[in-house]
Write a structure and sequence with these properties.
Layout: E1 19-27, E2 36-38, E3 45-53, E4 55-59, E5 62-66, E6 71-74, E7 80-84, E8 90-98, E9 112-114, E10 117-120, H1 124-142, H2 148-171, H3 177-188, H4 197-203, H5 208-219, H6 223-241, H7 246-252, H8 258-269, H9 273-280
Antiparallel strand pairs: 1-8, 2-7, 3-6, 3-8, 4-5, 4-7, 6-10, 9-10
């Protein structure tokens, strides 16, 4: 049996882990100055951040030159064909290989530069924050100890959420404080079996009709639809990160009847709670 490669920078490494992270320092004519070529991609995702020099990404006859600050996301099965840009003397890029938690899916739908390769470049005000988070992921991923990988995954989740937060802030004006307070109140009372808009409206000193109008105006959905989304999102989080019984998960988000909870959950996600949990394992 051939010996497995234990250096993730070199061909043949198995990447048989939930998270592996590092820095690839490519310099012209150096030992790492070759093109990565994985026509079938990988089983997990790779997130790539250029920190020095330039790299070139090729895919089906198209190419993109990535520069410091550019982040690229390669989903499972996406073509990997990249290396140092010929006109650049170096390409230093940090990377994270990971298998995502089930509830991350929405955060991994990045704007593609071509095919399914995602692209994101933080603006100048946020560049440093993302750079620091990326380095923390690498530091945690390479550390020893039983919690090192979990900490790295937690930091990666922070990075993905930061990106969503920045994108959301750029696309939407700040929420009316009363709508924000209403959202917080609803989130704090997801387990309440009985829910009515009047109690939320009273909490934020608005009439039910005015609250409903502001909700649709600022969030694009009704109060009830927003609450339903939060209940299902919280249920998905509990199913994927705890061993809480399904009936308890349902009660935790306001469903006293387990069968009704399962029916609503499947309608919203396409899978029953037990099927969803099995897919996270």
């Amino acid at each position: 049996m051939p010996e497995l490669q234990n250096d993730p920078l070199l061909p043949g490494y198995s990447f048989n882990a939930h998270l592996v992270a590092g820095l690839t320092p490519i310099e012209a004519l150096g030992p790492l100055d070759f093109f990565i070529d994985r026509p079938l991609g990988m089983k997990g995702y790779i997130l790539n951040l250029t920190v020095r020099g330039e790299g070139v990404i090729n895919n089906q006859g198209k190419n993109y030159v990535c520069r410091p600050g550019d982040m690229l996301l390669f989903p499972p099965g996406e073509v990997h064909h990249y290396g140092r840009a010929p006109d650049s003397k170096e390409w230093y890029h940090q990377w994270v290989y990971f298998r995502p938690r089930a509830y991350w899916q929405e955060w991994l739908n990045w704007e593609p530069i071509f095919a399914h390769t995602g692209f994101y470049r933080p603006d100048d005000a946020h560049q440093e924050g993302f750079s620091q988070l990326f380095q923390q992921i690498i530091d945690a991923g390479q550390a020893e100890g039983r919690y090192a990988e979990l900490l790295a995954i937690n930091l990666l989740e922070q990075l993905l959420l930061r990106r969503m937060e920045v994108l959301n802030a750029s696309l939407n004006p700040p929420l009316d404080n009363r709508v924000r307070d209403a959202c917080q109140y609803i989130s704090d009372h997801l387990a309440d079996g009985h829910f009515d808009i009047a109690s939320v409206a009273q909490h934020v000193c608005l009439s039910p009709s005015r609250l409903s109008h502001l909700f649709r105006q600022q969030l694009g959905v009704s109060v009830l639809s927003w609450r339903e989304d939060q209940r299902i999102s919280q249920a998905k989080l509990l199913l994927s990160t705890t061993r809480m019984p399904i009936a308890s998960v349902g009660r935790n988000v306001g469903f006293e009847d387990q069968l009704y909870f399962s029916r609503v959950f499947k309608k919203c996600t396409g899978a029953s709670p037990s099927e969803f949990r099995a897919g996270c394992e």
